[in-house]
Amino acid sequence: MIKQSPTRAPKQYPKPPEGTWTEHYPELGTAPVSSESSISPEFFELEREAIFKRAWLNVGRVEQLRRNGSYFTRELAVAKTSLIVVRGMDGAIRAFHNVCRHRGNRLVWNDDPRVESKGNCRQFSCKYHGWKYDLDGKLSYILQEGEFFGIAKGDYGLVPVHCEVWQGFIFVNLAGEPIQSLLDFLGPMITAIDYPFHNLTERFSYRGDIRSNWKVFLDAFQEFYHPPILHGRQNPVMSNAEYQRMGFYTMHFQIDGPHRVGSTSGGGGGQLPPEALNPIEGVFRSGLFGPWDHADLGTEGFPPGLNPGNKKRWGLDSFQIFPNFAIVFWETGWYLTYHYWPIAHDRLLFEATAYFVPARNVRERLAHELGIATIKEYALQDCGTLEATQMGLESRAVTTFPLGDQEIMCRHLNKVVNDWVSDYQRSRAEV
Amino acid sequence: MPAAVLPPQFSDLEPFAKTWCLASEPERYAKRLASSMDELQAFYDAVFPRAEEAVAYCDKFPLHDLPDDVHRLLLLLYSLILVSFAVEIWRQPCIPDTGTASFELKDAPVP
């Protein structure tokens, strides 16, 4: 049987000297990968402990906690917990398990304990017996304190969760003692990014409860192999003859520790011939690639850390921060984040959030609106398809899948997940 | 004759105002899914040719202090954006191949 090796890419998409991106990172191998980790409830239980209770997880941005006393709660089904993230009266941002130290009631919630809440307060007060906590977690009040036996309020503060901030992104770590600091975890490729996130405060956010494994879902959002096909009908750019014939090539891939980035060319609507546009795009000067007109990011020069491959026709970077967080930077001056929150081995909560420099007029506002509407139309197509993929894998009719060089990011995630699970199992065996 | 809700220059769009001046994206999206293609096409055919003029008109006012009738015109343009996907691309109200998957809007700017 003749085995096919990757052929040369078109010369405008040069690959590393090894011939392929995948072989540039030999630890990845080139063999088909197992799909078992996406359909096994047992493997998901391991992922909870090995990954989601040990890695740094992004739970929001500092702009969501504008004033002292601002807080929000986050449901983390993957860790079977809820967190309170709060800016204290001293301005510091802290995170706590959202559990009253008395008899374990969920502390902060409105109407429905399963629904996240947010607000501003001076203290947290339990709905059950009225125990009160300061915003730094200290227990400040016990009703009928004299009825308790040898109790010291200092021993009953809220259970803290490690919480650190990078570039305004709030991360938590559920480990008793994290293996690495946040900055060490993020590593040089991610921490090289210095972007004026604080100036992009206009925020649109969608979320969807999707019946697919979190990695099956994430994989579709970290490769550019599928867009000309799955999204071929949505946009004339994607259905153009070149992509349909020869596929789409990512210009640059880079891997750093558990994180990875793919960069692609531009092709923002503003540079396309009219026949490559949907009519609405010409009117509102926006579409698939977001607004056509460059936003003023309020900084000098090109943001450090972006376009790590230093490509001339750079259009976007898709940074995938392990395990479940992505930041996509667009050439025209806006960014998207994706979060993939596992709920079960076959279900996740997907969040897509777009950030813009605040619109100064209706024209800019409409360009943002068309951009995020386009994202929704695209992403829902992915959602339907990825539920179908999950169903396909659950049949176990196929148990491995081949991955091409354009899917190196999927191969890398698969390896990092397996490595973290193996490392966890080893550390458990040693105890 | 009911009272006009849009700026006088856009009185030809009044028949669509009651249906399509909806305050939030979830309402607009639900309305699109609940409409027939004939209804969506009629709305698109009426509003699309006026869109450029409507944007220019709205921009005579500060974004965060739009008079009520101008704000309703903006809501009509938001609806045009959602309806355009059904008319220009899908030729059906819903996105193909989405099964039962759906999104909820968590955050959006005002207006």
- The low-confidence runs of chain B, each spanning 5 or more residues with pLDDT under 50, are none
Poorly predicted segments of chain A? none
Radius of gyration of chain A: 23 Å
Please summarize the sheet with the most strands of chain A.
7 strands, antiparallel
The counted number of beta strands of chain B is 1
Largest interface: A-B, 42 and 37 residues
- What sequence of helices (H) and strands (E) makes up the elements of chain A? HEHEEEEEEEEEEHEHHHEEHEEEEHEH
CATH class of the largest domain in chain A: Alpha Beta
* Beta-strand content of chain A: 25-35%
The H/E string of chain B reads HHHHHE
Structural class of chain B: mainly alpha
The tally of structural domains of chain A comes to 2
Classify the secondary structure makeup of chain A into a structural class. Answer: alpha+beta
Helix share of residues of chain A? 10-25%
As an assembly, this protein is heterodimer
The CATH superfamily of the largest domain in chain A is known as Naphthalene 1,2-dioxygenase Alpha Subunit, Chain A, domain 1
For the report, how would you describe the main beta sheet of chain B?
none
Distance between the termini of chain B: 29 Å
Q: Can you give the mean pLDDT of chain A?
A: 93
Shape of chain B: globular
Structural features:
heterodimer, A: 431 residues, alpha+beta, Naphthalene 1,2-dioxygenase Alpha Subunit, Chain A, domain 1, Rieske Iron-sulfur Protein, 7-stranded antiparallel sheet, globular, B: 111 residues, mainly alpha, 53% helix, 4% strand
Please describe what this structure looks like.
The complex is a heterodimer of chains A (431) and B (111). With 431 residues, chain A is an alpha+beta fold. Helix content of chain A is 24%, strand content 25%. Chain A has 2 domains: 25-37 and 195-430, Naphthalene 1,2-dioxygenase Alpha Subunit, Chain A, domain 1, CATH 3.90.380; 57-177, Rieske Iron-sulfur Protein. In chain A, strands 2-11-10-5-4-3-6 form a 7-stranded antiparallel β-sheet. A 7-stranded antiparallel β-sheet of chain A has the order 12-18-17-16-15-14-13. A 3-stranded antiparallel β-sheet of chain A has the order 7-8-9, with no helix packed on it. With 111 residues, chain B is mainly alpha-helical. Chain B has a domain at 14-90. Chain B is built from 5 helices and 1 strand, in the order αααααβ. Chain B has helices spanning 14-20, 25-34, 37-47, 51-58, 68-90, and one strand at 104-107. The two termini of chain B are 29 Å apart. Classes of the chains: A alpha+beta (431), B mainly alpha (111). Strand 12 (202-210) of chain A pairs antiparallel with strand 1 of chain B, so a sheet runs across the interface.
